[in-house]
Amino acid sequence: MKKRLFMAVVSLVMAMGLVACGSKTPSTETPGASTSESTGETGNTAEGEKTYAVILKTQATDFWVKMWKGVEEEAAKKGVKVDIYSAQSEDDLEGQLAILESCISKGYSGIAIAPLSSVNVLTGIGEATKKGITIVNVDEKFDETELANQGGASVAFVATDNVAVGNKGAQYIVDNAEKGAKVAIIEGKSGNQSSEDRTQGAKEAFENGGMDIISSQAADWDRQKALDIATTLIQQNKDLKGIYCCNDGMALGAMQAVINAGKVGEILIVGTDGDEEAITSVANGQLSATVAQDSAKIGATSLDLLIEACENGTTGQVGTFPEKTPVDSILVTKDNVAEFQK
User: Which is it for strands 134-138 and 156-160: parallel, antiparallel or unpaired?
Assistant: First the structure.
């Protein structure tokens, strides 16, 4: 009886595992799970059909969920097999590398990957290149020098122009606050290229606009950390007029600090990404603006370039990095927010 009960439990657990692995809906509850347009197999089929993998950073924000859906929709249009994976969190550097190594072992024709940092997956990229697997770099740029050192290559790099994003967000504050006003920047994670580029663009806009930058510090993409930083800035600078944040989660944290201080309308908060919650906040007269990235288009474009390269048998050249394929961003304010609401 005990043996039969044990075997029944084992069977149930195995069945649950199969259901989880076949999930087609992005969910933060099952990070690292894949979605597939296939019959469940990975790698090239017996008939020589090419298969593709896309590895995203996380599923924790609208930005990545939209990119996931953009890849899915483009795969359906193209009629190709695509498995999509993501890391557990923005800090899961080793976990994302493990996902890449697993994809390499499964024999995909091509892999598009949005690395968590400029270097965390480069040993795997080198291995993939040696095995003739085509790679497309998405969103976060590979470190070119280390990529070459690892013997890795990429056929395309698809991303928003993040310097332009930061410049666009900060320029809104320049245009809507008096010249010489005190402003601040809340950065993402130190060393992250997207954060550094956005910060660079914001600083250029503030400096060219004659603003007084009193602080520029990292909150690690974290909402609570941004709230804490903004709270301190507001307490120490009674005449603070604006904060540009390198993502919407941090902007919403900074906005909460403004609300807590009773200074809504006095301090302009601008975020980045165009997340649903940020769009709602702009519509409600809280966040002043957000710079919306078209992450679905980034995902779709990345897949298109991956398919094209694989069909042409292109794997890139070690030591030569491709030019960026840019996807434009849009400043969302109270004047056009209705266009972005679901």
Answer: parallel
More confident residue, 337 or 22: 337
Model pTM score: 0.72
What counts of helices (H) and strands (E) characterise the chain? 11, 13
| Size of the chain, expressed as the number of residues it contains | 342
**Token pair of 276, please?**
């649903």
Torsion of CA 193, 109, 106, 48, to 10 degrees: 170
184, two tokens: 């601040």
The phi, psi pair for 210, rounded to 5°, reads 75, 25
Q: What percent of the chain has pLDDT over 90?
A: 81
Average of per-residue pLDDT values in the chain: 88
At residue 172, the pLDDT reads 98
DSSP sequence for 107-172: T-SEEEE--SSSSTTHHHHHHHHHTT-EEEEESSPP-HHHHHHTT---SEEEEE-HHHHHHHHHHH
